[in-house]
Amino acid sequence: MLKLVVLISGGGSNLRALLEAASDAEYPARVVAIGADRDAEGFEHAEAFGIPTFTVPFSSFPDRESWGDEMLRQITRWGADLVVLSGFMRLFPPRVVAALSPNMINTHPAYLPEFPGAHGVRDALAAGVTQTGASVIVVDNGVDSGPILARERIPVHPTDTESVLHDRVKLVERRLLVQTVLDIANGTLDLTEKTLA
User: Which terminus in the chain has less CB density within 10 A, N or C?
Assistant: First the structure.
């Protein structure tokens, strides 16, 4: 059974999808803890599913390195096989990435390497593209630059607003994340080989 620690910063919609998948006895992964860098709305999902939580507020530390060290301590104490960033909006210091790599994955609301960064959906709309996508990647020290594990194209409609398109992207993002974790747990996706979509 693959043990997951999921990190969130907001509402945790991808987290909810993972918790629902993991509630099926046949799904070979379980969320053992949920962490955040702030008091996140997504902790409501943790409470609903009876999952322990931890918070490591960025503002409580003098620098990113000491914050990252405490985050790593919290993650490590749960014995996670895989760390899932689910709307987690902080970049880890390189030594934390090195300690967890390649067993740390993230979702992104664009067809990477297109539109990396915090505003993938907004940037796609601003660029006037006819399609964007969703991706799951291995976290590295760049911004959404790690090896791509899964990705899928999503059409952009002329009437799309940022929120409408983002909602459609999130549906695919959740499905890709649940499937990617399943593939890792089943051994059909080897993170050490950094399989590209």
Answer: N
